[in-house]
Structure to design on (442 residues):
């Protein structure tokens, strides 16, 4: 039975889970939730996702929401499907796992917190015929620019956001992480992909003057 | 060598780490960071915590920031110090760990995201002689009230936020989680403690009409 992914094609969090399942070669079926019609606020939906958001998964009866938790679950359950694990082993390499959790927390608190707001204003509100709140967009952009400055500092010392300095692999080709070329590439890097591209392609955030983020931005690889 | 905890006594995130270390019987030394004097923005500090926040730890030369990542690290490294682990085993019980990660993500996205803003406005800004932004306080309160409604629904089905329905232990005394009485009590529950108390004691958020959150609020236990 394939994993059922309840989500929306415009949702970065749905895309995040889809990307992780693709990396781990997990067959899944996308079941679209009609958010414009308010399906995510129905009692039936709230019974599976009490916050009324997307996505959630149904893995043979096991219901799970929150895109990062789903990614952990896929990376743990299907860890043998992939050559280079995207999640360090918590017990065998406690420090490496701690660094990974540090980067995951940074992703959530210094990146997603603001991109979520921007996506809401620039994408979701217009779907409901509402005007974007320019103040929120402006404040979020400022925070994201601050984060980019710190990312540039972090990436000046290591190749990936949760990467270990001592195992830098310069010049590796971007193709798929599953082939094992990226020893320090983790779920955290995947967590950034769907929004890095959107914001840089729309020129909302510039990598100019941030050479290490520019290198990290896979569109230039 | 005891773990050095660089933080501030008014910081909930510092308190969170201190509580986890106490639960795991890990000796630590609190080294106060003088944030009013801007110590957290000095080059020396940013070298250890690039975002210029508190807390971070120095465990015999291993530097780690982000309070949740530090909690993971303590719970993993010192897992034998405690009878009832606060972190489920990722590989032995993949689904339980996934539920834990789900609750940790909810804590970050639906709770901390707003409490952090309120603490900033009500506690930090006045330290720098700035007026709190009432609009931010009001918006955050509204979001926290929504979260409380969902928490009440979640807690109507299970005892703790990452708890398993099938192992509910009703009427257990709150004393210390380390004694093993709380099989479903996890780091996620500790993550809420420092702010649940602050906000309910200041009557900023009411548990009225939310009987399951009321039960969860340890001050009434």
């Amino acid at each position: 039975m394939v994993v059922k992914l309840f989500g929306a094609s415009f949702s970065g969090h749905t895309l995040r889970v889809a990307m992780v399942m693709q990396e781990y070669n997990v067959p899944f079926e996308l079941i679209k939730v009609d958010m414009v019609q308010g399906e995510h606020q129905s009692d039936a939906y709230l019974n599976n996702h009490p916050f009324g958001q997307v996505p959630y998964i149904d893995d043979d009866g096991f219901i799970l929401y929150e895109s990062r938790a789903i990614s952990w679950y896929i990376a743990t359950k299907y860890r043998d499907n992939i050559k280079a694990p995207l999640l360090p082993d918590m017990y065998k390499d406690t420090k490496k796992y701690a660094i990974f959790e540090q980067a995951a927390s940074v992703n959530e608190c210094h990146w997603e917190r603001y991109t979520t707001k921007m996506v809401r204003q620039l994408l979701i509100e217009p779907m409901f015929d509402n005007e974007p709140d320019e103040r929120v967009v402006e404040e979020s952009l400022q925070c994201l620019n601050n984060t980019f400055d710190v990312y540039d500092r972090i990436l000046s010392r290591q190749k990936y956001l949760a990467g270990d300095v001592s195992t830098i692999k310069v010049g590796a080709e971007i193709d798929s992480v599953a082939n094992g070329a990226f020893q320090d590439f983790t779920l955290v890097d995947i967590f950034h992909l769907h929004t890095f591209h959107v914001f840089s392609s729309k020129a909302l955030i510039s990598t100019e003057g941030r050479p290490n983020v520019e290198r990290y931005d896979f569109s230039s690889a």
